[in-house]
Specification:
The structure is a homodimer. Chain A is an all-alpha fold and about 500 residues long. Among the domains of chain A are: about 90 residues; about 250 residues, Neurolysin, domain 3, CATH 1.10.1370. In chain A, about 60% of the residues lie in helices and about 0% in strands. Chain A has 20 helices and three strands. In chain A, strands 1-3-2 form a three-stranded mixed sheet, sandwiched between helices. In chain A, helix 9 packs parallel to helix 10. The first copy, chain A, is globular, with a radius of gyration of 23 Å. Chains A and B meet through helix 1 and helix 2 of A and helix 1 and helix 2 of B.
Chain lengths: ~500, ~500
């Protein structure tokens, strides 16, 4: 009975975390303004209740019994993995002193306002003291969590287990080697026509078309819904209720469409997790205390990037759906052909703001953040020197002169204000993993590309469900990649994809 | 520090219960169909977590310390009441054996489908076995909870503390004495014109007007929002986020409007609770395990009924807002004057269905249910005899021949399917209390009626906030009434109100 007791108890942890996710979704989509203060208390209570239940004597007792019960199972069986993951999570959380966690949480909520003010004023000195404390707290966290080589490794663990500062250095160097020449060459090339993307597209019609395309690639709205928010996101409350949002700009239509395709990619990961894993640790991130079926933040991003970039921004997609988008916006795109549309939504240009960056330049924004975070965490960069280092690195990688320290500069992201350090690498891991999976899928099963050419997304979705989504959190990200592609994370397919795509669009030598 | 520890711990109980309320609201308004199964598990876990925290050793320890700490405070101080209410709630929950609660919960979820099937087929025999078990379980609950005179008293306790079967008998007899002659006289009187209410009113316009009127009487949408559901309801997640819903029938416009006014009345109760009570037991029903600031279900209903019936269905209201409703539905009501509209929305006619009953006949539906519930609970009525008893009582009170045992008869309400017995009295308590409060308010402060005549709802709202809402759950319903009106629940103002209103509308002798 002990294994059953364990999954019953972890099921309740999952319920509490999912309840928190519902409250977060509601806060971002539906909640009236007045509800904010009470809501943050409710969220805090749910998080504490989940953590306390995870680390309770009841759980430990069930865990010991379950461990004995499943001792004969293979190491990578669902049962053995559940036992191992619960044990590891308890161990992880018990290494973090409650008073340290409390200091982090408290600073996280007070620092947000300070950051918002500093960002508004474009004055880094307003935020510097809070960030200094936040970096110190994160260094303490790293010590508590433990690491072999670099304290940044400990901080990345909850977002992208196994990723190291040293590994990122090598990876980023290889990416720059392949990508900087492309960026430079594009700067001198002729720009594709794109003025039609900035026409007036009614918000309602954008939402209808965004949902239509999300459903077209396989997002199941019987178990989901699409809403609008300032920042698009996906969140699940088990695989049976996986919601997405997108943002709408009436003067820049691609935002709502690609936002929806991106989040639908995330959503299909969650919707595709083995139903048998529902409410179990294989659909619960017990380290980050977040109810999610995806195995890492980077693995999750691989699915959103794959559907957004490898499918939604492909030439075949627009050959197939140019008529659909013309029908969605009568009279607005009559002077645009599929090839022009394809090129327009793939144009690339260095910019200041990460969330607005294109497929080719996005990773440079990630590199800047990861490298500077690692240096702050190991003490080789003082917080006071951060803006200068930021601007210098942006100039170095993208050739741009950052105009201010606010929305276009070092203060643009919300992450640091809440104490999150170590999360940015996921985006680049996602880009690389997406290309690696897509390459293998289309080489291994040529009918996948044939189907994509005919606007049939089922074979690709099925391949991704079989090789990624269904496994939930049973296998690590690199185990998944090994099983699916025969090797761990490898940047070469990504570089090949970018080189081929941009050389073609910009007619590079 | 112990009193502070107590309110910290009860604050977390409140958070968990509010989280459950958010999940319930979401399930009824936003959730995709696929989410239902996971959601019910999440709700169950939250309810258990709240109950376990309430009855935890930590809570009892804090309670003992707090009791010593506030020993010198007056009995009706907030602190003394909090200590007393927490102690009473722990005692209440610990009297109910966990296995009995489990049986009730399990039957509650399985019986729902059986009831729905029986209702659809209009075949009571399908539901009879489940209802028999449910009645037995409720009898066991009554024994566990304890009572002085009648087991029904124990079941009503969590909904309307202090209400007894004997008290209801007296109350209902007096109501019938005053109301049956009105019902009979109206049957022979000329019916007011009402055909214009059934015209085609677009759903969007109905929602706009419903919200406009809800805000007009004082519902604060900075701390609330209006949505549509099949059954209208109000739910709060602290006073800072109080949401309402209404239902829209494009061929019967009053439904959305009076639904919104009714729920706005509930909402203003919650929005008016003293902010100092937020997250405390004075804004948490620890007996019913529901995060609510209103002191009883009946007291809550008094506020919704007061705003719906005494304000929204008053002659003055339509004198003032006839132009508004004409503007909301251009061209639809040009041939209707304020007096005609007032009479139309106050017409009365015996009917079969409680939720569609008018102000005068509603209480008869309540009486039927309470009387039959009490008899089933004390064993003087067998479940098998229920349909016959139902139909006979409906004939006796309202003179109608119930056509079937389904949607128009004994199976119409969902309550029994979930095991709820003892809740129906609240509606009549609410009607009586509404009239009693409204009479006192307008006698005590004549400027309240003057203001209402000028479409100024602030003086009435202020009076109700001062005499009812602000106190949250600090005073019992009858304490509130004693303080506000000088006496406990008294049906005479209600009977006087009905007699005056209907004698006038129907020109009765």
């Amino acid at each position: 009975m002990s294994y059953a007791e364990l999954t019953e108890a972890t099921g309740r942890v999952n319920d509490l975390l999912n309840a928190g996710s519902v409250l977060s979704w509601d806060a971002r989509t539906m909640m009236p303004k007045g509800g904010a203060e009470s809501r943050s208390k409710q969220l805090a209570t749910l998080a504490v209740a989940a953590r306390d239940l995870l680390c309770s004597d009841e759980m430990k007792h069930a865990l010991d019994g379950a461990a004995a019960e499943v001792a004969g199972k293979p190491d990578d069986s669902a049962e053995a993995r559940i036992v191992a993951q619960v044990r590891e999570a308890i161990d992880y959380h018990e290494r973090i002193p409650p008073e340290l966690l409390r200091r982090k949480t408290e600073l996280g909520s007070s620092a947000h306002e300070v950051w918002a003010e500093a960002r508004e004023q474009a004055d880094f000195s307003i935020f510097a003291p809070a960030l200094t404390t936040m970096v110190d707290i994160n260094r303490e966290m790293a010590q508590a969590i433990g690491y072999e080589t670099h304290p940044y490794d400990a901080l990345m663990y909850r977002f992208e287990p196994g990723t190291t500062e040293a590994g990122l250095k090598t990876l980023f160097a290889r990416l720059r080697e392949g990508m900087i020449p492309l960026v430079r060459a594009i700067a001198d090339a002729e720009k594709p026509r794109a003025e039609f993307l900035f026409r007036d597209f009614p918000a309602d019609a954008q939402m209808v078309f965004a949902l239509q395309m999300a459903e077209r690639i396989g997002y199941d709205t019987h178990r989901g819904r699409l809403d609008t928010t300032v920042h698009p996101f996906e969140v699940s409350f088990t695989r049976n209720d996986v919601r997405i949002t997108t943002r709408v700009n009436e003067r820049y239509m691609p935002m709502s469409l690609f936002g929806a395709l991106h989040e639908a990619g995330h959503a299909m990961y969650e919707q595709g997790v083995d139903p048998a894993y529902t409410r179990t640790p294989l659909a619960t991130d017990l380290i980050s205390l977040y109810a999610v079926g995806g195995v890492s933040f980077g693995a999750h991003e691989s699915q959103s990037r794959l559907w957004e970039n490898h499918v939604g921004r492909s030439r075949a997609f627009w050959k197939n759906h140019m008529d659909d988008i013309r029908a969605a916006y009568p009279g607005k795109l009559d002077d645009v052909d599929a090839e022009e549309f394809y090129r327009a939504v793939n144009r690339s240009e260095p910019s200041f703001v990460r969330v607005e960056a294109d497929e080719l330049t996005y990773d440079f924004h990630v590199m800047v953040r990861c490298e500077l975070e690692a240096k702050m965490v190991d003490g080789s960069l003082n917080v006071a020197e951060l803006p200068e280092a930021w601007n210098a690195t942006m100039k170095d990688y993208l050739g741009v002169d950052v105009p201010d320290d606010g929305k276009q500069g070092v203060l643009q992201d919300v992450h640091w204000s809440s104490g999150q350090i170590g999360t940015f690498c996921n985006y680049t891991v996602g880009n690389i993993m997406a290309a690696q999976l897509f390459e293998t899928a289309t080489i291994e099963s040529p009918d996948i590309q044939t189907a994509l050419d005919a606007a049939d997304y089922t074979p690709l979705r099925t391949w991704l469900t079989n090789h990624v989504a269904q496994h939930g959190r049973r296998f690590s990200r690199d185990e998944l990649l090994e099983k699916a592609t025969g090797r761990p994370l490898d940047p070469e397919p990504y570089l090949a994809h970018l080189t081929k795509k941009y050389s073609d669009i910009y007619a590079l030598a």
